[in-house]
């Protein structure tokens, strides 16, 4: 298979796998740590309207969704890439970082979580996924 095609497929697969892992964790998060009464964690408007009700424990699953989604996506991209494996894994990290930044602008949240999420969930997990796959 052509190197370019293989690398494009690696990026596509990394994004899809990362999104599936992220949404899987978000979807099951309410069963692990119940959200505040009346909050639907899968609905952005519900989250935005009730983010002030969230306690620190309610941010554990979103952080894990962001970090593990990025890690899984970066791992898959690096495993599948024909060349520059760490670069492709970091590209997945950047992709999810941009999504995380957009999410913060749309949803808001406490500053401590914003800093933790931006600093710990995306680029470090992209790098780690690339290293684990190499």
Salient structural properties:
single chain, 134 residues, mainly alpha, 76% helix
Characterize the structure shown.
- With 134 residues, the protein is mainly alpha-helical.
- The chain has one domain (3-133).
- Helix content is 76%, strand content 0%.
- It contains 6 helices and no strands.
- Helix 1 crosses helix 4 (85-107) and helix 3 (60-80) crosses helix 6.
- The longest helix has 30 residues, at 3-32.
- It is elongated.
- The two termini are 20 Å apart.
- The relative contact order is 0.19.
Describe the structure concisely for a colleague.
The protein is an all-alpha fold and 134 residues long.
Largest sheet: none
Number of strands: 0
Number of helical segments? 6
pLDDT averaged residue by residue: 94
Topology order in helix (H) and strand (E) letters = HHHHHH
Q: Give start-end ranges of low-pLDDT stretches.
A: none
Topology:
Blueprint: H1 3-32, H2 44-50, H3 60-80, H4 85-107, H5 111-120, H6 123-133
Helix pairs in contact: 1-3, 1-4, 3-4, 3-6, 4-6
């Amino acid at each position: 298979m052509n190197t370019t095609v293989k690398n494009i497929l690696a990026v596509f697969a990394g994004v899809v796998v990362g999104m599936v892992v992220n949404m899987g964790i978000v979807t099951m998060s309410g069963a692990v740590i119940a959200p505040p009464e009346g909050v639907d964690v899968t609905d952005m408007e519900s989250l935005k309207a009730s983010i002030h009700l969230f306690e620190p424990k309610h941010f554990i699953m979103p952080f894990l969704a962001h970090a593990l989604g990025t890690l899984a996506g970066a791992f898959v991209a690096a495993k599948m890439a024909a060349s520059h494996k760490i670069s492709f894994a970091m590209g997945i990290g950047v992709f999810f970082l941009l999504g995380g930044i957009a999410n913060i602008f749309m949803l808001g949240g406490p500053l401590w979580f914003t800093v933790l999420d931006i600093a710990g969930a995306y680029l470090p997990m992209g790098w780690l996924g690339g290293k684990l796959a190499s």
